[in-house]
């Protein structure tokens, strides 16, 4: 089945604002049979006390709480109206945030019954001044947040994968997301920040622990091609190093465009076999 498993909507504050319906129509035009709408779930109100960096890292990261119902109404309407042309699933891309697991679980308990497909992602991790910083906001923000570690890239990777490890072990309840989003997002600015080197033995061991846990949990990985089109990344997420290990364990890799605009729907889908099989 041709699936786009990771997409966003006109309500995303850092998106294009283009109509979600046109994105669905584009997916149908491209021959997709399943289309997963996974808008960024709201961040916990208390998270602002832990956060450091450019304020847009939280103000433009996700839906607001008062947008959840309008988002679900939008997605469910499209799901109904296009049911005879494409299988649309509705869900959220949920952030793992240290110290905010209880709030996130409560959110999923409330809205999870209305979802079919959710993604769990790490967009934030601990950095300078022991505060929580956005990983993917900008290269400049990344350098401010993690600059003291950039001379030893493995330290950056370790912090990121330790956070991913925490995320896959978090008790998010009955509606815990089944797919792990872009599991190498830490490399989004690799060409600007000198993070191109492969993972060392210690970090590969950590990745293997994560993948083995995902296998035990019967979870999936987001095969996210958005990184290929980012100016300082130029690679897909989670990259061949991780995707090869996931394949050996039989972990499903679910293609996701991570589209925030019409033109990005399905982008790079034709490259999947080349990227993961060499």
UniProtKB/TrEMBL annotation:
<comment type="similarity">
    <text>Belongs to the PHP hydrolase family. HisK subfamily.</text>
</comment>
<keyword id="KW-0368">Histidine biosynthesis</keyword>
<dbReference type="Pfam" id="PF13263">
    <property type="entry name" value="PHP_C"/>
</dbReference>
<dbReference type="Pfam" id="PF02811">
    <property type="entry name" value="PHP"/>
</dbReference>
<keyword id="KW-0378">Hydrolase</keyword>
<comment type="pathway">
    <text>Amino-acid biosynthesis; L-histidine biosynthesis; L-histidine from 5-phospho-alpha-D-ribose 1-diphosphate: step 8/9.</text>
</comment>
<dbReference type="InterPro" id="IPR004013">
    <property type="entry name" value="PHP_dom"/>
</dbReference>
<keyword id="KW-0028">Amino-acid biosynthesis</keyword>
<protein>
    <recommendedName>
        <fullName>Histidinol-phosphatase</fullName>
        <ecNumber>3.1.3.15</ecNumber>
    </recommendedName>
</protein>
<feature type="domain" description="PHP">
    <location>
        <begin position="4"/>
        <end position="189"/>
    </location>
</feature>
<dbReference type="InterPro" id="IPR016195">
    <property type="entry name" value="Pol/histidinol_Pase-like"/>
</dbReference>
<dbReference type="GO" id="GO:0004401">
    <property type="term" value="F:histidinol-phosphatase activity"/>
</dbReference>
<dbReference type="InterPro" id="IPR010140">
    <property type="entry name" value="Histidinol_P_phosphatase_HisJ"/>
</dbReference>
